[in-house]
Amino acid sequence: MEYFRYLGWRPVAVLAAVLGAYLLACLGLWRFQTKMIFFPPQSVGAAPTDVGLSYEDLYLPVGDGQVHGWWIPAPAAITKAPVIIYAHGNASNLSDLVSRFQQFHDWGYAVMAVDYRGYGKSSGPFPNEQQVYEDIEAAWQYLIRQQEIAPGRIVIYGQSIGGAIALNLAIDQPEAAGLIMESSFTSMREMVDHRFPLLAKAMPIDSILTQQFNSVEKMRSLQIPLLLIHGTDDDIVPVTMSQQLYGETIVAGKTSSRLIMIDEGDHNNLPTAGGDTYVGSIQAFVESQQR
In what order do the strands lie in the sheet with 178-182? Predict the structure, then answer.
């Protein structure tokens, strides 16, 4: 009894401090989770002209800002060329993708791409899930209204988190030609489980997480053909996530879906690691969906 009398209020104080720290950590994760998902580089270096591509520099109004984008027409000799609308990852901006867009152009495709608000030269608040959906929608509307491109010529393409953004657009625009998701994930919830397993066990993630990016749930609503590409050595987003997304399309009876796994490919090197397999699968998919 003397021992407990000696302890007095100390156990209660320690418990209160631990509980307070836990609640503060939960509040911080809820409040700042977008800062843990989006890493927007604002400096813009390379431009399409650096690799000999003609393009239009665009600023499209959206919400309380504007998105900066590039419209890169297909080679002049090609009429009714396929059009790629591209959604990039969470730590890139347009200037990081010039060589990628050059590759599409060399294949005879036109390219439309934008930086999400907060990225590159785009203005507006720090990005979140709803905003990036609106930003890629602005790019779609530009193609349809300003360029008067038939939806059946447009393939929606997303890399990493851009795959989730592209999927959302593809569901909203079922008249598009097709969807390509490269190195993308099933959901932000499952990414937390994968990247931060201790955090996922210690905190009520389902209650805290506002940025869902729940591609696995949305997949059964997809109505257009799908190509999934993933590297077997991806240590950021495991290849099993693309396998799971593909499995959802099979369960839903979608026979127009395909999964390509690139041996020894990591999260960002598929264009080089994949070689002819990578190039051929994209070209075959894009060109087979044109209408």
Answer: 56-62, 65-72, 110-114, 83-87, 154-159, 178-182, 226-231, 257-262
